[in-house]
Every structure is written in C-alpha cells, then in structure tokens.
Amino acid sequence: MSTVQRTVKVDSTLVKAAKQEGTLLNRSTSAQIEHWIRLGRAFENALGVSQAKVQRALVGEITIDGLTDREAEAYLANLASSMQTPSQAERDFYASLGEPSEAAGMDEAELYGDTLSHPDQTCANTAE
User: Fold this and answer.
1) What is the rounded CA–CA span in Å between residue 34 and residue 41?
2) Is 70 within 8 Å of 48 (Cβ atoms)?
3) 53: region left, alpha or beta (phi > 0 left; psi from -120 to 50 alpha)
4) How far apart are CA 54 and CA 68, in angstroms?
5) Cα–chain center distance at 115
6) Rounded to 5°, angle at Cα 104 from 123 and 106
7) Which pLDDT value is given to residue 114?
8) Angle ∠(2,75,5) on CA atoms, nearest 5
9) What pLDDT shows up at residue 1?
10) Fewest Cβ atoms closer than 10 Å to its Cβ: which of 49, 78, 90, 110?
11) 58 CB-near residues (< 8 Å, 6+ apart)
12) How far apart are CA 77 and CA 1, in angstroms?
C-alpha cells in the first residue's frame, strides 16, 4: 500500500483522542486515524449502504427515491455536512448575489414617471 502525505483539517479533540488511543495500542497518531477511517468505512458498508449509490444521488445522477432507508439517511447526513462547509465557489456565488446587477429593466423614474415617485402616492397629491 502506498502512502500519500497531505494536510487535512481534523478537529483537535479527535487528534488528541487518536494520540491517546494510539499510544495504548502502539500506533502512531496517523496510524490510529487511518484505523478509525477503515473502521468507519467498513461500518458504513456493513450497514447495507451502497456508498456508490449515495454518491450518485449527491451529484444528482439518481434521485433519493431509488435509495434504501439507510442509504437515504447516509445521503442526508452527507448533504447536511456539505452544506455546513460550502466550497469557495459556492461562497463566491452567494456573495455575488448581493452585488449590483446590470439587468435589463427600468429604474423608478422610468417606471413611475416624474410626477409620481412612488405607487402609493395618489393623484390628489399631484394636483396641489
């Protein structure tokens, strides 16, 4: 098995727990985390959850109607998790929604004319 060294953000309490548990079992912190990852993966697959189907639903290739109840639970958990950590592209998109647009249309003066500045004004106000 080849190994790849990458930086991954992990909650500090999990790292501390992995260090303590690893020490008890003569494993390094990274070996303990890898062990937990393998256990989690095996557990998910043992529950009758097809991760491939869940992934296909997450990318929109299939609907959740085709998932078992357990697969739907895994789908919703993954969806909730991804919504809590939006990608930079998603953050940029939602930030752009607040920017002024160059959309076609009329401004208020063109829409209401020079005499009425707001639709709530009545004709009586303009006669004075």
Assistant:
1) 11
2) yes
3) alpha
4) 10
5) 49
6) 15
7) 66
8) 20
9) 64
10) 110
11) 75, 78, 79, 82
12) 30
Does residue 16 carry a pLDDT above 90? yes
Residue 54 CB coordination number (10 Å):
24
Q: Tokens standing for 68?
A: 């078992």
Query: Which phi-psi region, left, alpha or beta, contains residue 105 (left: φ > 0; alpha: ψ -120 to 50)?
Result: left
pLDDT over 60 at 83, yes or no: yes
**Average pLDDT value for residue range 35-46:** 79
- Alpha helices by DSSP H, the chain: 12-24, 29-46, 51-58, 69-84, 88-96, 108-112, 123-127
Q: Which two tokens stand for residue 17?
A: 């727990």
